[in-house]
Amino acid sequence: MSDKAARMREAFRSKGILKVVGAHNGLGAKLIERSGFDGVWASGLEISTAYGLPDANILTMTENLEAARAINEATALPVICDCDTGYGNASNVKHMVKKYEAAGLAAIVIEDKQFPKVNSFIPGRQALASVEEFVGRIRAAKEAQRNPHLMVFARVEALIAGWGMEEALRRAAAYAEAGADGIVIHSKASEPEEVFSFARRWDRNIPLVAIPTTYYRVTAAELERGGFKMVIYANHGLRASIRAIETTLETIQRMGTTADIEEKVASLREVFELQGMSAMREDERRFSDGANVQAVIPAARDHQFQPDLKELLKDKPLCMLEVGGQTLLERQLTALHSVGITDVVVVGGHLHEKLRAEGARVLYNPDYRKTHCAHSILFAGEQLKGKTVILYSDILFDRQILARLLGSPHPITLVIDRAYQTLPTRKKALDLVAVDDPALPPGSPRRLELDLYKPIRHIGKRLLGAQPTHEFIGMAFLREKGLDVLKRAWEQAQGEYQGKPFYEASSVAEADFTDLLRYLLDRNFQVFGMEIEHGWSEVHSRSDVERAEAHFRRSASTLAGVQAPSAA
Ligand code: SPV
Ligand code: MG
Predict the structure, then answer these.
(1) CA-111 nearest atom, ligand 1
(2) Strands (E), 203-359
(3) Can you tell me the mean pLDDT for 272-276?
(4) Is the confidence at residue 554, as pLDDT, over 90?
(5) Distance from the CA of 354 to the center of ligand 1, in angstroms?
(6) Going from the N-terminus, what domains does the chain have, and what CATH number goes with each?
């Protein structure tokens, strides 16, 4: 039953007394739902107060409807709407019912006073409508409704206006006769006796509702025993929040700091939870480019051959190295998550027992000493399916690069950096790339199209006979076809190159990913490079670590801790 009106009718039949609490916005509704109540009262008093205005029909029907709509949309609970007098005569009521019903509200309550009304607890000015005229409003409401489940409650104000019990009963009976689905009998007495005596004499088979604002000692169980089917705690959320806000403000003013109240107020985490932030993040993940993409991080290698990291890496693999308070792997996982990639396989080897990869699967390549990167990537074997990101475990990078990479239409795309040519010479043998499209000579006209993806001609540590144009950064994106081709190539190469060197590797087992890519290029399979300029760093030396640390310090101070730095 998705219709809240239908569900509420059902609840009246199947449950004991329904407990309903007043709200003026979606937040109130959520808190009420979280506390296990049966419904939300879209209270005129609360909504007026939230605007800082008297509860006296100052707000228009549209404004009250907007508030009720926001309340309704924030909760799965049925919302019972305080519609005051119905904003005029029977014609106004008809229009109003159409609008409230269309907004999916479960019930409306109209009171038998004259428009403009004032709140029932304001002495004087509680002028009642004539019974006949109000009966017209009820009949108009019932005639206007299209959803047979929508409940129309008549609220009897005779006790409030001081017209006595007989008048209250006479009116309630007339409204029931006119088709009202329930009666709210309102009272400003400090004891419940008045409403109990009404209920004792009530002989119709439609539910009675109490609003025990002034006779607050009464319990829900007593009201239930007295014949009531619903109790509305009309304004207690509002009143509680006024007091809590005031106390907080007074403390801040007096202390000149929020230090004393930090522990007493709701945490931002709780606030985000109430907003539905985690559900939103989950949606973003599901609908993002990265949904259905997996990642493989080969992290099996012993990087202790990097001399100035020897000390730092004596008891952990490189991906567990902390840079700026987080390990390389944590930073990579955060970047992957930020583009929606949550299916991550980390292939460990050297000191794999020290791998901590929260939310990722860790595979152990026991042959890590005798094998190399290509083996580690393809070691994931059967577990590799569909779109796949390959990410070397020794790089930090701007997550925008990763986000852009996922947009590549090509079967295999490598991220290639053209800035490498301008960098000081590095000791390590680099993964070099040559593409057809060299840098533009000075004086070239501006190009409109950005040739983001460039066909790769050569790749390797040495490019025999070709001028390197880029460096492969250790990040690649394989679409389904690219992954299939890579897997098949790996199998073929095992047979073809058994016992022989494989490009720059002394055997296939020791092949680097670039050797395997070369094998593909030699078989005329087109691999593309996505060009970048800077925005990443390998971590192979103490100076790499220091530069990265400085970067994270700078980003943290620029962003003043509001947002995570963008480099992974
Ligand atoms: C409201 O909450 O606006 C009500 C209930 O109408 S009472 O304030 O008790 O009249
Ligand atoms: Mg009201």
Answers:
(1) 6
(2) 208-210, 230-233, 293-299, 322-323, 326-327, 343-348
(3) 95
(4) no
(5) 63
(6) 4-234 (3.20.20.60), 238-265 (no CATH), 269-440+451-540+548-554 (3.90.550.10)
Write out the residues surrounding ion ligand 2, Cβ under 5 A: 44, 82
Cα 283 to Cα 292: distance, rounded to the nearest angstrom: 13
pTM of the model: 0.67
**Encoded tokens for 313:** 């890496």
The CA 127 to ligand 1 mean position distance, Å, reads 16
Average pLDDT over residues 3-30: 97
Of 25, 8, 108, which is closest to residue 61 (Cα–Cα)? Answer: 108
Ligand (nearest to CA of 40)? 1
Distance, CA 119 to ligand 1 centroid (Å)?
7
Alpha carbon distance 418, 441 (integer Å): 15
Pairing of strands 395-397, 536-538: antiparallel
Distance CA 22, CA 361 (A): 48
What residues does 371 pair with on adjacent strands?
A: none
Decide: 284 and 277 in contact? Cβ < 8 Å.
no
How is residue 262 written in tokens?
A: 């930090």
Whether 469 is in the pocket of ligand 1, judged by its Cβ within 6 Å, is no
Tell me the catalytic residues: 55
Beta pairing class for 470-478 and 412-417: antiparallel
- 565 falls in which pLDDT band (50, 70, 90)? very low
